[in-house]
Write a structure and sequence with these properties.
This protein has helices spanning about 10-25, 35-40, 45-50, 60-75, 80, 105-115, 135-140, 155-165, 210-215, 225-230, 255-265, and strands at about 85, 90-95, 120-125, 145-150, 175, 190-195, 240-250, 265-275, 280-285. It has about 290 residues and is of the alpha/beta class. It has a seven-stranded mixed beta sheet with strand order 5-4-3-6-7-9-8, with helices on both faces. The chain has a two-stranded antiparallel sheet with strand order 1-2. It folds into two domains: about 1-80, Ubiquitin-associated (UBA) domain (Helicase, Ruva Protein, domain 3, Orthogonal Bundle), CATH 1.10.8.10; about 90-285, Rossmann fold, CATH 3.40.50. It contains eleven helices and nine strands. The chain is elongated and about 65 Å long. Strand 4 (about 145-150), helix 8 and strand 5 form a beta-alpha-beta unit. Its EC number is 2.1.1.297. It is an enzyme of class 2 (transferase).
């Protein structure tokens, strides 16, 4: 129970009680959730917990940790409570209009970097940019690249702009309001996207944390989960000759998304698998490269 967190508790004991409360609650928690909440609530770093773990909680400390722990016990994801999350070893702020960046999506960044030779200028387009994590990660690795993030959510665009500035690439990133097939000027060397790919009928079966806290517009891929892909492959017209496209896909979608791209005139470059062995990213090239 969050009420077990009292003023005067040593930090280490507060952490132990928070861990016990989360374990007893039945929420699907990560092993470090209690530590994340304590560090965030107290405004300290991991080293402070190690070096000053016996320091007692103040009234303000205890109140902040109780509030954060109560939200976690109610099923709110820890990243939403913190208001930020790490991706590609970079910090990203979150908002209600953005998904929490997932480790699986780093496979998409890896695919994009493999398709973009380093040491030369490049133009990148991120369709459905959300928090901007994919575009910002790519720009952080390619200092001569420029990027455009497209999203239909004004709130997501504000968050993405903030994240680009926060991570030092704001001067090379533009964020534009629009849908998948917005009328952009072409010549992009790389188009990336992690679109909604969950079938509408499957949304109700997602975990409560996802259903209640993730924006449905970033999840719902239509009747068969492929609506966004049908429109995105048309963005092949925006690629420079030999330009690449990399799309994150859901389970068992790699082959059908590859077929959609081929039908749109793109040349498949094969899937890229994530650390669990699933085909996570489908790649294409524009003809002539």
């Amino acid at each position: 129970m969050a009420s077990a967190i009292e003023p005067g508790l040593p930090r280490r004991e507060a952490l132990r009680r928070a861990e016990a409360a989360i374990a007893a609650s039945g929420v699907d928690a990560g092993p470090g959730d209690a530590r994340f909440l304590l560090l965030h609530s107290l405004g300290i770093a991991s080293a402070d917990l190690v070096l000053a773990g016996d320091r007692p909680l103040s009234e303000t400390d205890a109140s902040a940790l109780r509030e954060a722990l109560g939200r976690r016990l109610a099923g709110e994801p820890v990243a939403r409570i913190l208001g930020e999350w790490e991706f590609w070893s970079l910090p990203f702020r979150l908002s209600g209009e953005t998904l929490v960046p997932r480790p699986d999506t780093e496979t998409l960044v890896e695919a994009g970097l493999a398709a973009l030779p380093s040491g030369r200028p490049a133009r990148i387009l991120d369709l459905g940019t959300g928090s901007g994590c994919i575009l910002v990660a790519l720009l952080s690795e390619r200092p001569q690249a420029l990027g455009v993030g497209l999203d239909r959510s004004p709130g997501a665009l504000r968050t993405a702009r903030e994240n680009a500035l926060r991570n030092g690439v704001g001067g090379r990133a533009a964020f534009v309001a629009g849908d998948w097939d917005a009328p952009l000027v072409g010549g992009f060397d790389l188009v990336v996207s992690n679109p909604p790919y969950i079938a509408s009928t499957e949304i109700a079966g997602l975990s409560a944390e996802v259903r209640r806290h993730d924006p449905h517009a970033a999840l719902d891929g239509g009747r068969d989960g492929l609506d966004a892909y049908r429109r995105i492959v048309a963005a092949g017209r925006l690629l420079a000759v030999g330009g690449a496209m990399a799309l994150e896909v859901g389970a068992d979608q790699a082959e059908v998304v590859e077929a959609l791209g081929c039908a749109a005139g793109l040349e498949p470059t094969g899937p890229r698998h994530d650390l669990t062995g699933h085909a996570r990213v489908v790649g294409f090239r524009a003809g002539g490269g």
